[in-house]
Amino acid sequence: MLSIDAARFLGRLAALAQVGRDEQGRLTRLAGSEADGAGRDRVAGWMREAGLDVRVDRIGNLIGLWDPSGTGAAPVMMGSHIDTVIDAGAYDGCTGVLAGLAVIEALREAGQAPRRPLALAAFTNEEGVRYAPDMMGSLVYAGGLPIEAALATVGTDGTVLGTELARIGYAGPEQPGFRRPHAYVELHVEQGPVLEREGIAIGAVEDLQGISWQEVTIEGAANHAGTTPMALRRDAGVAAALLVTWLRERARAGNGRSVATVGRLRLEPDAINVIPARATLTIDLRDPEADRLAAFEADLAGRLDALAREEDVTVAVRRLARFDPVTFDPRLVRAIEAAAQARGLSVRRMTSGAGHDAQMMARLCPAAMIFVPSVGGLSHNPAEHTKEADLVAGADVLLDVVWGLSGA
Amino acid sequence: MLSIDAARFLGRLAALAQVGRDEQGRLTRLAGSEADGAGRDRVAGWMREAGLDVRVDRIGNLIGLWDPSGTGAAPVMMGSHIDTVIDAGAYDGCTGVLAGLAVIEALREAGQAPRRPLALAAFTNEEGVRYAPDMMGSLVYAGGLPIEAALATVGTDGTVLGTELARIGYAGPEQPGFRRPHAYVELHVEQGPVLEREGIAIGAVEDLQGISWQEVTIEGAANHAGTTPMALRRDAGVAAALLVTWLRERARAGNGRSVATVGRLRLEPDAINVIPARATLTIDLRDPEADRLAAFEADLAGRLDALAREEDVTVAVRRLARFDPVTFDPRLVRAIEAAAQARGLSVRRMTSGAGHDAQMMARLCPAAMIFVPSVGGLSHNPAEHTKEADLVAGADVLLDVVWGLSGA
């Protein structure tokens, strides 16, 4: 049974994790930055060493092509991203890109020539930290966002993405989507606690949660904390707290698939002895089923109306982001399960709670994802970690699935 | 029936409200500031014009004495403060000081010589905005805080109160408490909605709420908002919200006298898609009865223990301030009621929700307060307003009560 070169794969993961560290040792490779450029140079160099035909498209997606049979057919694509959040871990994104490279090298070095071409993509700006929206490179590649609009995006630091890509040498000539894949498979760290908690090595990701982001502003009336009787208060902070607790109960009351999070909450005037006049909070709702996500949103809208009446406050809602859930290709999911089982690895079907490039590529072709366990469920955090054996097992499953798809 | 000179009283209130306005027209006379010095100069000048013997003690309390009978007995003291919050209204504090001056002038100009001396105090740093604690001048006068400690207080701007008092010329020679009053009566705007809502002219303040200020820090675990199932979360924000709603219910469940406010609440890391790892909030509990306040605090401590267990979070509490409730002198309260009724003014007994100099003076002598309505219940706000007729009515009631106490 063919396997990837574990030492080379892990060595490159470690090497890439050194690109973009600051004096304090913190890893940050924001999309379009110098550090992103340096990371891309490293990955592109490894692609060329592996004999790939390296292309860059207009949104900066870095794509290596290998067509040993010379068919020019639609490729089986692997990929992920190498941009990071601020003070990031080493595994989010890079694992999928470097595992894809290891898969091609394993086949090539074993003298295997797949019938279909293979492609490996490092998509631009998956994290969306500097430029919104996230998953931008794959979204543009899949035709979901016009290239001109994407290039004109102004970042949190006032920069323009197109200008920054040109500056770091990754404003390429290819039209995004220039190769429509036959299939897309992405290996990624889970970024959640499920696999580790259940002691399972491989996640066969069958769907991906829809996401609804809203900002809610509640306006009550500031007043003296000592002299205002409870019955006469219009406390925006209490209204916000009622909303937070309702969201938790509503999420729990379902079948366990809906999640709701209030990550930001600000009170004004923010004084110990003044009843809050205004509360501003964000709501992050996710569910893998479109109908359930829409029902949660509808219930939330109703709850906000009731809250305004019951608490004598006004409530304003601003939509920040909305992605429908994605169902991955069932045959690909079965192929991932089968490959794991054939290697004696424990496997379970699961839902991705986070967004990934695979959800955009699913608009173009059959797609699915392979997850490997995150220690402690941590991600977007320097403590992010996946055990070496799990990383290698995931890359080997990717190898088997891609080999099967490419027409062994 | 003797009355105060309404036009002179209201004119001085308006004049004093012009001292300390900035270019934008905002009124700020922080304790020990240049503006405070200018306000004191104005008030001291009016005291001298009224024939008072003006004294300043070491903490800067400005005290005018009038002893027409030459008895040297313990004076009946009136007073309040002229320092303000930032962007203040015209009435908080100044009303009581200038009404006291109007009372003395009314008696003097009518040829009345009270048997006991009268005294009028403008206490230093009642607001506590620049130097903590608030009500500092009256607290020192009543022996509740050593003068050296008070003078060494470092302000929010890094200044030292004693240095600032000397700079503005109000580090006086008298020992705080140099005249122990026979009684103390303070007129003040309500700073709450009760009198206006009930259409009542005069509040006879029979007690003053105890105050308990605490800061609570809840520590959970940051995690991905999409990938972390509801059942596996340790959400510090949800725990904080449960606490906020519990506080409201606990306050409401009593007899309507307890109030609870969460005015500040901060989440960390404060990101839309990250479960809050830490919530920091302030709790302001008030109740006019010591036992009830203590019971509320005990219930809160129990609730925090339960919350830590139920939500798998850690909870740390820091005490910020604590003042026991004050019960004012029943005979004085009855005298205020009787004086209001004799003038045909509607009157009700009530509790002060805010802290006042009178609560400190109650340690030294029988004390009570007269409240007049605040329009809209607003205070600590440039929109703070009390109608002229209400201000004058309050000053006339003060006149009658003081005349009765001083041995007409």
Automatic annotation (TrEMBL), chains A, B:
Transmembrane segments: none
Superkingdom of the source species: Bacteria
Binding site for Zn(2+) 1: H81, D92, H188
Coiled coil segments of this chain: none
Single annotated GO MF: metal ion binding
Boundaries of every Peptidase M20 dimerisation domain copy: 209-310
Database matches in InterPro entries: Amidase_Cbmase, Bact_exopeptidase_dim_dom, Peptidase_M20, Peptidase_M20_dimer
Record bears the keyword Zinc: yes
Descriptive protein name: Allantoate amidohydrolase
Annotated Zn(2+) 2 binding sites: D92, E127, H380
